[in-house]
Amino acid sequence: MFDYTTGGDDSGTEEEQAAFMKELERFHREKMLEFKPPKFYGEGLNCLKLWRQVTGLGGYDQVTSCKLWRQVGESFKPPKYEFNSLQLI
């Protein structure tokens, strides 16, 4: 098993990201679950970064109960949408 703890950069190297995705795919296959690599605003999601962010904040239950998902999501730098009421018409 690969050590996915961070040395400062949550994103990881391309090699670390690829190894993490392989392990994630293997996990799903062993559980006989379908796995589709997730997307975030149409781009492939760095699952290693997501895992590091969530575990760094205490895990899924902690992130959920403390409503930290926005903080996690913003670390991926989503596009900022600015619109006014005229765009809604």
From TrEMBL:
The domain of life is Eukaryota
A molecular-function term among this protein's GO annotations: DNA binding
Q: Which SUPFAM superfamilies does the UniProt entry name for this protein?
A: ARID-like
Pfam families, sorted: ARID
Q: Which UniProt keywords apply?
A: DNA-binding, Nucleus, Transcription, Transcription regulation
- Alphabetized InterPro entries for the sequence: ARI3A/B/C, ARID_dom, ARID_dom_sf
Keyword check for Chloroplast, yes or no.
no
The keyword Nucleus belongs to this UniProt entry's keyword annotation? yes
BP GO terms, sorted: regulation of transcription by RNA polymerase II
PANTHER family associated with the record? AT-RICH INTERACTIVE DOMAIN-CONTAINING PROTEIN ARID DOMAIN- CONTAINING PROTEIN DEAD RINGER PROTEIN B-CELL REGULATOR OF IGH TRANSCRIPTION BRIGHT, PROTEIN DEAD RINGER
Q: State the protein's name.
A: AT-rich interactive domain-containing protein 3
- Which species is this UniProt entry from? Zea mays (Maize)
Q: Lineage from the top down?
A: Eukaryota, Viridiplantae, Streptophyta, Embryophyta, Tracheophyta
